[in-house]
Amino acid sequence: MTRNICITSADGQTGFLIAELLLTDDKFKQQLTSLTALTLDPSSAKAKELQALGAVVVAHRPGRERDVAAALQEAGCDTLCLVPPARADKLDVALELASAAKKAGVANVLLISAAGCDYAERDGQPRLREFVDLESVVLSAKGDPGSALGHSPCVIRAGFYAENLLLYSEQARNEGLLPLPIGENHKFAPIALGDVSLVAAHVLTGKGPHGFDDRHRGQMMVLTGPMLCSGKELAESASKALGQTMEFENISEREAKRVLKSQTDLDDSEKEYILNYYSLVREGKTNYISTTAFHDVTGQHPTEPDEFFRNYAGELRPKKKLRSS
Questions:
Q1: In CATH, what number is assigned to the domain containing residue 252?
Q2: 277 is in which domain, residue-wise?
Q3: Which has the closest alpha carbon to 3: 83, 110, 96?
Q4: What is the pTM of this model?
């Protein structure tokens, strides 16, 4: 059974890591016939790296659905990993990709969505809520008997990426602080991006009589990290991993916005997404973990906060030892 996978937004962090894992892990690599990296910037370093690993890099030029469908057909794509791009028109581009995949006769589609989108309010957290609109379009193909796209869908609702905490590495190194606008009491369970990529790789390479493995086909997989953490508990995990005291500082959304603006080169829409998620935490709508899908799909345990902070110790460790309070 062939498996010609196309990964969208392959020049972004999520798409790149999924593609890289598929191309470098022998278990997944042997299940592939081909891997197409659909990228908005074919000249990017990530696109070139995937090409060197064996991916076919194809330019993605949104705006003309017919051309996008033709690109998918030319690639022989039978499986689409739809990763919404990190840009302001994310929803429009992703909806166009879903429609193009339908026209191209793609049979298997894995959508990378966002955990918490169903709790988000359209007025309060619009960047989160738009994932609900995208999910409804992708899953609506299931009720269309004339569409191959409805045969084998799967949705991964990925929780807040723990890597977003690295955006505050400057404060961590210089002040021993983890400044987050999440309030003092509510909790959330950040997930390592590598864990999301691992589940995606299992789904994309799993095979069954209808496309994806029947254990994955039709699933709504909600993925969070394995530990509910308040800001103080995150700082305690970081302190334990780094061997030096880190402290949590509850900052205002206004200050968080300034930090994101001055310390990152993220697209404005991604900054809005992060701030939307923080507001969801403050509202108490992230006080849960969801690890069953991760365990069932991978047979492993997701990354604990201590382990995550150890992995990134070089970026977070304070420049000088700070006195314990």
A1: 3.90.25.10
A2: 163-187+225-288+303-316
A3: 110
A4: 0.94
